[in-house]
Amino acid sequence: MNTMSEKQIPLLDLQAQHAQIREEVLAEIVRVVDSQKFILGEDVKKLEAEIASYSGTKYAIGCASGSDALMLALMALDVHPGDEVLTTPYTFFATAGAISRVGAIPVFMDVEEDTFNLDVSLMEGVLTAHPKVRAIIPVHLFGGCADMDPIMKMANERGIPVVEDAAQSIGSEYMGRRAGSIGKIGAFSFFPSKNLGAYGDGGIMTTDDAVLAERLTALRVHGRTGKYFHQWIGVNSRLDALQAAVQFRYLDGWTAGRDRNAGHYRTQIAKLAIPVIPAKPAVYQTRHVYNQFAIRCQQRDGLQAHLKKQGIGSEVYYPLPLHLQPCYADLGYEKGDFPVSEKLAAESLALPVHSGLTVEDIDYICESVRAFYA
Ligand SMILES: Cc1ncc(COP(=O)(O)O)c(C=O)c1O
Questions:
Q1: Residues above pLDDT 90, as percent of the chain
Q2: Which of 140, 172, 189, 196 to mutate to test the pocket of ligand 1 (most atoms within 8 A of CB)?
Q3: By mean pLDDT, which of 15-24, 55-64, 75-84, 188-197 is the weakest?
Q4: Residue 247 CA: distances (Å) to CA of 9, 190, 235
Q5: In the predicted model, is pLDDT for residue 214 greater than 70?
Q6: So what's the architecture of 17-247 in CATH?
Q7: Which residue did the predictor score with more confidence, 2 or 92?
Q8: Which of 67, 74, 204 to mutate to test the pocket of ligand 1 (most atoms within 8 A of CB)?
Q9: How do beta strands 229-230 and 185-189 pair?
Q10: Which residues, 6+ apart, have CB-to-CB distance to 297 below 8 Å?
C-alpha cells in the first residue's frame, strides 16, 4: 500500500468496471451453472456471431486464449516445423511463443517509433533474406493497427498468409477496416485486462475463409470433424460458455471512454508542455482503441517510481524485446539488432487510460508527470 499519497489511480481498475455490471454478471453465472453446459454451446455461438459481425468477418471461432488463437491460426495455415514466421520483437511473448509452439522459427523485424508496430519499410529486405517465411504476424499493439496495406501487398505478392495479432485491438480500425478482417485470420484475446475481458482466459479467431473456419473449428477440438472422427491432429482449446456471457455489449462504451481519456492526455501534455511524447494514432489508424496509452519519455524508470509515490499505477510494456529473451538465445540475435524496439523498451511507459478515469484523474496524472521533469 502506498503511504505517500492519498490518491490511488491504478493502471487498470477492474473492480470499478465490474461494479457497473455485477448484478448482470452474477445472474449470467447462475444461468450458466444451472444449465450445466459449460463448454462451447449456444452462448459461445452467440458471441462468435457478434464478434464476426463486429469485426466485419464472415466467421469467428472461439478458443481458450489469445495465445491458442495464434497457434491454431498457424496450424490451420499449415505452418510446419522448420518454417519461418515473420513478426515483431516488440510485443507480448505469446506472439512469438505461438510460432515456436508449432515448431516454426520466429524471424524478427524492427518496429517504428511512432506506432510501436512493424516498420514496413524494412519488410521487402527481410522477406528477400528469408525465403522460408511461411506466415507473417503483424501485431496491432496497444490498440492501434499495424500498417496493413503494404504488409498485405508484400505478403500477397509472395503468397504468404497474414495472421493479425489483434489480441489488444478488438474494434480497432485500419483505414475503416476492422482489426482481424484484413489478413487471412485474426487472433483476439479475452484476457481480463483486454478491452473485452473475460472471467478467466479466452480467445477468438476471425476469418472470411470458409475452409479455414471449418479447420479452426475442428482444430480447437482435437481436429474432430465428426463424432470420434479426426481429420487433423488438433488440440483442446475451447471457449467456456461463461466467458461469452456479458461484457460484449459494454465494449463500445468502454472504448469511447478510453478514446476520450487518450485525447485529454494529449491536450494536457501539449498545454503543459510536458517533455514526453504521447501516443497518437497514425493517419491510417482510423480507430485506435487504446488497450494501453503509452508515452515515450526520458528517465522512464525514475518517472515510474515518482508516479508510484503519487499513487499512480503505470507499466512498462515491454522491458525486454523478444530477440533478447533467454529462450530465444539460439536464434542468434544480439543487442543492437533491433534498435527501435530496444529504444522503446527503455523509453515507453503505459499510463492509466481505462474508462473509469475522470478528467480530474488525468489532470492529476499529467501534473505529476510535469512535476517530475520540472
Ligand atoms: C499482443 C498479444 N498477443 C497475444 C496475447 C495472448 O493472449 P492470451 O493472454 O489470451 O493468451 C496477448 C495477451 O496478453 C497479447 O497482448
A1: 92
A2: 189
A3: 15-24
A4: 23, 10, 27
A5: yes
A6: 3-Layer(aba) Sandwich (3.40)
A7: 92
A8: 67
A9: unpaired
A10: 275, 276, 277, 303, 347, 348, 349, 369
Q: Which run of H or E residues covers position 84? A: strand 84-87
Q: Is the pTM of this model over 0.90?
A: yes
- What is the 273 CA–ligand 1 centroid distance (Å)? 34
For ligand 1, is residue 164 a contact (CB within 6 Å)? no
Answer yes or no: are the C-beta atoms of 314 and 306 closer than 8 Å.
no
Q: What is the distance between the alpha carbons of residues 349 and 301, in angstroms, rounded to a whole number?
A: 9
Of ligand 1's atoms, which has the minimum distance to the CA of residue 70?
4
Q: How is the chain split into domains, by residue range?
A: 17-247, 249-373
**Helices 94-101 and 66-76: crossing angle, nearest 10°?**
40
The CATH homologous superfamily of the domain defined by 249-373: Aspartate Aminotransferase, domain 1 (3.90.1150.10)
Rounded to whole angstroms, the Cα distance separating 11 from 15 reads 12
Using CA atoms, how far apart are residues 201 and 153, in angstroms rounded to an integer?
A: 34
Q: How confident is the model at residue 1 (pLDDT cuts 50, 70, 90)?
A: very low
Q: Which three cell numbers stand for residue 64?
A: 481458450
Q: Is the pLDDT score of 2 beyond 50?
A: no
